[in-house]
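re: ur question from earlier - yeah i can do the single chain one, its not a big deal. heres the input i used so u can compare w yours
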Amino acid sequence: QVQLVESGGRLVQAGGSLRLSCAASGRTFSSYAMGWFRQAPGKERDFVADIFWSHTSTHYADSVKGRFTISRDSAKNTLYLQMDNLKPEDTAVYYCAAKVMGTYKFWGQGTQVTVSS
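and the output i got, formated as tokens:
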């Protein structure tokens, strides 16, 4: 069983920064890809960024490129999302997820990020 617990979401003003964390436990994640997704009210869950646990290859949604940075600390089994220059349209519940056999199989409970204008 895999457990993912996000934290770090809060209310922030536009132009501000936040760092989200995702603590992973239950399995060894060295061979997995990990991702961040977000879901705004009334919208579908969208991909934000991902990273392979064993190396630093990363991918980002166009809407966050240049503003968000995904990283991981293997020793702490923790995934991060550094979010800079936040915009009101970044308001959403942010989820981390672990990809197993090509599918995001394990999900956290989400953390709310609200960006005020």
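The radius of gyration is 13 Å. not sure if urs matches, ping me
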